[in-house]
């Protein structure tokens, strides 16, 4: 107890003991002397010391009980609400609120919350963590966690007076008594620690801010996928390529030898657009070959397409295409429905190239012109005499759609035969529409149409008249000004 | 009367009317501090470094395999129709089982006032936590989309707009294992705080002192603190004891609540718990026997400790053997053809080799512990325990795979083939386990010093009384 220590605030007096028995003895004496604000510090829990010091039992068990009950209530409420009320559904024929099935979780949460009660309750009651404690200033106190026992009398005790307490302790079996004073070691946290901490905290906000920003803004970019989550189907679209097949086409043609639903048709005229009777007369071999080809297709053998008159070579084309006795007329009975169906199919399959009006300026053509595709051959216009029914029989048009011609691909794989015939009917209607005269319109509608025409002409004339007047006025105004 | 031990360090001989000493030699409190602290304070030895490098390499391998799994999908495992619960679940149940001994030793033996637990409980608890960590890994990645494993938690999800299904044993399992992991961690850490304070007070290095100081929470050893601490410890032990029994019970529900023949049995809960204790103790011994020699703790972890654990292994191993027999009896007695087939298939079907391994390792090998020589010779103990570990892994394999590979639909029957990823993950999980355990040995107090000292105090007290 040197003098310099006296200047600091005195917290209490501590004495050191080397064994449990001497400590217990000292405790009893201190207790009997009337001190209550005392404490013993030991390396392990010494039994009997609470009595020797007069320590009251703790309320901890009640906290644990409360924790356990809270856990039980939470678990039951949670399960009943989640599975029985908020999102009820039947599992294994059990009722929505099936208590037996809720027991395991109820048990686990009871234990968990009770354990939290025991753990956190104990530290809270003990006032820990507490890192700065005056008792740590005692130079020998480090041994409390090794092999020494300390008895401490707090200065706040009502009956505390330093000399008296010291004397009391000196009478016990101790060799070391010391005054506990304020801890004056700096409690300032090193600067670099604070800077690092602040930097880390600040940086940790960046991802949060980014996320928050992303959540409130829209973006034209596709969603950012950390994990693909099966959002992307590996299935390819019809227009895409794939490495799975030798021809790199994702869209698969019919497997050779298979017949699609609704395609089983005995009538070869209907399937080919060729008048088979005439063909047999003209060219028996080719007719036989065609029959064989289609028969094989139905029997499941690979199709031999040699007989179909598609070819890329213009020289050869002439002979085959021209000698073939094409069906003159559409074998399908033409009704409004058929033509409308044909229109629909034409607009789906043909209009992209040939345009809706059939003049050959579809979107693909426009794009090709725009990028000046060098190998592009413009799709033919439907409105040329060579394609009219007289020169270009229905059967031939059907064949062109089915098997393609020169640069145009065939559509037999995509469009059903019936629909191809519908397209033929529609193309005829289209051709007609672009070259029609009033006489082509049914009589009863002619008058109506004439009236409409008159209306339109009148309207146009009025418009022209109005424009002219405006022009005159403008000219007059200009003249006045001058 | 003195406690001098006639034949060297043998405290396994029972002398009537006298308690065998649990701390050997003329040990003082300070000796205990020294013995335990030197483990952490010494620079790591060659054996430790080598072991750590091996374990750490395996851990990394596990990490790579998990990354590969997450990147590619669960098809990298051997799990295939009809065995969708392959090795991941086998490994899970295996590790959870091992994780039972620690808390059992700490809690149940504490409640039964088995004081010999004091010097082994810390390491056993650490082992529990590491085993639970290994166990938790497997269901976590077995869910397939591991990054969504948090969907298991009942939180108000904006993506799902629904809640977990609380009538499923799989969800009970989530709660059981996570509660168990949490409570074990609290229990372990709480038990360590006074010893961490010892580490703090002995640290010369400023940073070390600060680190241990923070972990020790400002522990002073105040009697008032000790009083509440002891109370909390006893309460936690009382809570952990039923908890530890509930965990493997609920794990067994994963199987028993289903309709699969060979799983749908009421004996599963007690049988699983016995098996868990059995495997847990075997693992504790497998670790502790070499560790006590390497870390120089023979005076604290005595042969008597080892012997006691061997006896527990013998008892639980016999219970497990009885359970195997009972299963067959019930299959016969119950007269359900599917059940009968399942059990015959288990023992004599295509997986007969697994069943044979299981029975010989789990039922036959622990019977050696009837002989005192086997219970008191360290290397023989380790040998038997390794067999038990192998056997217990096979037990889970037998249960999971034999039942699933042949259930009600014979056209779906097939034989299970593990892949290299299955193997790697099993071995890698040992890497995780040993990495954590070796770090623990080097950084934390491996033995509960405070409790061992209080055991010594009682021993001294008795001696003191005897002398008077």
UniProtKB/TrEMBL annotation, chain A:
The chain crosses the membrane at residues 59-81, 101-125, 192-212. PROSITE patterns: CYTC (PS51007). InterPro entries: ActD, Cyt_c-like_dom, Cyt_c-like_dom_sf. Residues 295-323, 460-482 are annotated as: Disordered. GO terms for molecular function: electron transfer activity; heme binding; metal ion binding. Residues 337-431 form the Cytochrome c domain. SUPFAM superfamilies: Cytochrome c. Keywords: Heme, Iron, Membrane, Metal-binding, Transmembrane, Transmembrane helix. It holds the Pfam family ActD. This is Cytochrome c domain-containing protein. It comes from Novipirellula herctigrandis.
Automatic annotation (TrEMBL), chain B:
The keyword Membrane applies. It is found in: Cell membrane. The chain crosses the membrane at residues 48-72, 92-112, 124-150, 170-190, 232-251, 271-291, 312-332, 352-371, 378-400, 420-441. Pfam families: NrfD. One of its GO terms (cellular component) is plasma membrane. Keywords: Cell membrane, Membrane, Transmembrane, Transmembrane helix. It is a multi-pass membrane protein. Its main location: membrane. It comes from the Bacteria. The keyword Transmembrane applies. Belongs to the NrfD family. This is Polysulfide reductase, NrfD.
